[in-house]
Structure formats: C-alpha cells, structure tokens
Write a structure and sequence with these properties.
By secondary structure, the protein is of the alpha/beta class. It is 29% helix and 17% strand. The longest helix has 16 residues, at 39-54.
C-alpha cells in the first residue's frame, strides 16, 4: 500500500476498490504506523490475536475493514475484523460469542478501537473470490459516507503473520 493508493476525497482505497488487498502484516503495520494515533489500534489488534491464539483459536486469515483503513490520522478510527477459518477448525459456541460477536467480551474490551464483528468458514481462505457473504458485504459498505452503499476496499491479513508462532 502506498499513499497514492487512496482517493483524496474519501481517504479510502481508490474507487472502484478491489474487494480485498492481500498484504503482509509487516507492510500493513509499516504503512499505518506512520499515523501516530493508529499505533494504539495496531497494538490492540496484536493483543486480540494473541488472546485468540492463547485460547487455541487460530483463524487462517483476518479480513480488516472499518474507518481505520482511511488514509488519515484519527483517534476515532476503528478496526473491524472478520476471522476466516478452514472447515477443520471448530470454534465452540461460547468462544464464538466471546470473540466474534458484537455483544462478546472481546467487543467490550476493545470498544471504540477494535470491533470483532464475526467469523466465517470457507473451504479455501486463500481464494479471495470465495470470501463472500453478508458479513463481507456489510464490511464493504461504509455507512459514514454520504452514499452508504459506496463500497470500500478491505484488507486480508494472514493470522500467522500478525502473531507468529515464536511469540
């Protein structure tokens, strides 16, 4: 990602954005760390992922959306997260409620900075074209824009890059 990847008016990825930008966590972090106020959300994202890993919940990847992706420094920026799992990874109902719902413990802990909004299971999380559904569609829409149906691009991060095994 580069600064010229963003629309100068909306400060989101240029229209029409690709449905997803696949990027490594290092590049993602390097780009958004240039905004002083977004460093907090980045550290909370790592904390959230470490909590998942500690509880033996390991998504294949994370779909990131929300106002955090805007190319501006804002203390109100929110990272919205959808965790994507392979079919073999089973997440019990209690963990699903705790970590991936708007009423869960994780949502309350990171309120106003990170919003874990759901999870999905697909056969091949690496196939970007198979990432579809109402959660993805809703995340593509930014209801703060004048046109609430305008689509914004999302970022796909490998979970293992956010919290490598050696940590």
């Amino acid at each position: 990602m580069r600064s010229d990847s963003f629309d100068i008016n909306t400060r989101y990825l240029k229209e029409p954005p690709p449905p997803f930008i696949e990027t490594g966590y290092t590049d993602f972090k390097k780009f958004y760390e240039t905004f002083a106020k977004k460093k907090i959300q980045l550290s909370l994202l790592i904390d959230y992922c470490k909590n998942l890993k500690k509880n033996k919940i390991t998504p294949e990847c994370l779909i990131i959306g929300g106002s955090f992706l805007r190319n501006e420094d804002s203390k109100d920026a929110i990272i919205k997260i959808i965790a994507v799992f392979k079919p073999k990874m089973k997440v019990d109902h209690k963990s699903n409620s705790k970590y991936f719902s708007r009423n869960g413990e994780a949502f309350q802990k990171y309120k106003g900075k990170i919003e874990p909004i759901g999870r999905m299971t697909i056969a091949d999380p690496m196939d970007v074209n198979s990432l579809q559904g109402s959660l993805i569609d809703d995340l593509h829409k930014d209801h703060s824009l004048d046109n609430s149906f305008a689509k914004v691009g999302l970022v796909k991060l490998s979970f293992d890059e956010v919290v490598p095994n050696e940590e």
